[in-house]
Amino acid sequence: MPAWTDTHTHLDFSDFDADRAQVLERARAAGVTRMMVIGTRLERLAAAAAWVRQEPGLHATAGIHPCNVAEHGEDALAQLEALCHRERFAAIGECGLDYHHLPPQEKDESEAAYVARLASWKSRQARFFRSQLDLASRLGLGVVVHQRDSWEDTLAILREFTGRVRAVFHCFGGSPEQVEQLDALGHLVSFTGIATFKNAAQVQASAAAARPGRFMLETDCPYLAPVPHRGKRCEPAHTAIVAAQIAALRGMSLEALSAETEATVASFFRLD
Question: How far apart are CA 83 and CA 89, in angstroms?
Answer without folding.
Answer: 9
